[in-house]
Design brief:
Elements: E1 9-13, E2 17-23, E3 37-43, H1 45-55, E4 59-67, H2 70-81, E5 85-91, E6 96-102, E7 108-113, H3 122-127, H4 129-133, E8 137-140, H5 146-158, E9 162-165, H6 176-180, E10 184-185, H7 189-198, H8 214-224, E11 229-233, E12 239-242, E13 255-258, H9 271-285, H10 291-305, H11 318-325
Parallel strand pairs: 1-4, 1-8, 2-6, 4-5, 8-9, 9-10, 10-11
Antiparallel strand pairs: 2-3, 6-7, 11-12, 12-13
Helix pairs in contact: 1-9, 9-10
The structure holds alpha-D-ribofuranose.
Length: 326
């Protein structure tokens, strides 16, 4: 069972991608050829979240699958630099990739090529059961096979850890089995609407979500994850927190909003990942503190990440956050 020795420990099961990024004035439309400024760097929702958790101060293990190529070597080098406990399955498939466009307002569109990420198997996750047993918080997303996410959460739950699901990207399906093993879910607006509809809820407009009244939003969250907590990240509108009845995680209210941090965003790529990694680290560090405190920390951490270009490389440190916000 999880005990005080697990405090501050996070395990992330997820993807690593080499991101190929073009910054340009406006996102391309069908039929357009545009010139942009290119850079490449480390990404993948799993790796971004693991990097964020480590920089936020958690002892972090990252379970993933990498190709035997330059991308895989990049992941190993960077993981060592951030002190990540890397548990990588070496695959014949190439390391995952992503093509990303970022516009002048810092908004992005992303296409991924899963490559090795698709090879991350439940059996490999099982080989790293000890890391899951030692974690206060297990965090995963949907860029790796569903069965592997389920295996990770089942093991973490059995060991007494908390499970944090970032149901991203929006087009990925999460099964009932995965939802049943989820304690906290953290979709953005698009992911929330897509996942809610898949679970039989109303068809909502992601662009109108932040404008719904709090009681209505809370009711929709309860439909997404009746037994657990939901945090909808809403970009410039901050986020919305919704808890199940009788499981307020130290908060005074069952639902409330947290404002976004005052930052000058230049690139929002990986901001959701920054939020998730920081939330996992904060929960692991101080599991008995009010949930709202952790959410406020994660909102600031995510905000700071948008002031730099890139995904994993843009994650701030706990010290930078405290210097900026106190
Ligand atoms: O969330 C941002 C990430 O999504 C990028 O780093 C890209 O690799 C994709 O996984």
């Amino acid at each position: 069972m999880s005990n005080s020795a697990n405090k501050g420990r996070v395990v992330v099961v997820g993807s690593f991608n080499v991101d190929h990024v073009w910054a340009l004035p406006a996102l391309p439309r069908p039929g357009e050829t545009l010139a942009g400024t290119y850079h490449t760097g480390p990404g993948g929702k799993g790796f971004n979240q693991a990097t964020a958790a480590a920089r936020a101060g958690a002892a972090t293990a990252f379970v993933c699958a990498l190709g035997d190529d330059a991308g895989g070597r990049l992941a190993r080098e960077l993981a060592a630099g951030d002190g990540l406990d890397l548990r990588a399955l070496r695959c014949a498939e190439p390391t995952g990739t992503a093509g990303i466009y970022v516009d002048a307002d810092g908004r992005n569109t992303i296409v991924i090529g899963p490559g090795a990420n698709a090879e991350l198997s439940p059996a490999f996750v099982g080989e790293h059961a000890a890391a899951l047993d030692a974690a206060q918080v297990a965090l995963t997303q949907l860029e790796t096979p569903l069965e592997s996410a389920i295996a990770a959460f089942a093991r973490a739950r059995d060991a007494g850890g908390s499970t944090l699901l970032n149901p991203a990207p929006a087009d990925a399906v999460a099964s009932d089995a995965l939802w049943a093993l989820t304690d906290i879910a953290t979709p953005n607006e698009t992911e929330f609407c897509a996942q809610l509809q898949r679970r039989g809820g109303d068809a909502l407009d992601p662009d109108a979500l932040a404008g719904l009244d709090d009681a209505a939003l809370h009711a929709h969250c309860r439909r997404l994850l009746a037994h657990g907590s939901v945090v909808i990240t809403l970009g410039k509108s901050g986020c919305f927190v919704s808890h199940a009845d009788g499981a307020l995680r130290g908060d005074a209210q069952a639902f409330y909003r947290v404002a976004a941090a005052a930052v000058k965003a230049i690139d929002t790529t990986g901001a959701g990942d920054a939020f998730n990694g920081a939330l996992a680290a904060a929960l692991a560090r101080d599991p008995d503190a009010a949930f709202g405190e952790h959410v406020r920390y994660a909102v600031r951490f995510a905000g700071l990440s948008t002031e730099r270009a890139g995904a994993a490389a843009a994650m701030p440190s706990d010290a930078e956050l405290r210097a900026r916000f106190g």
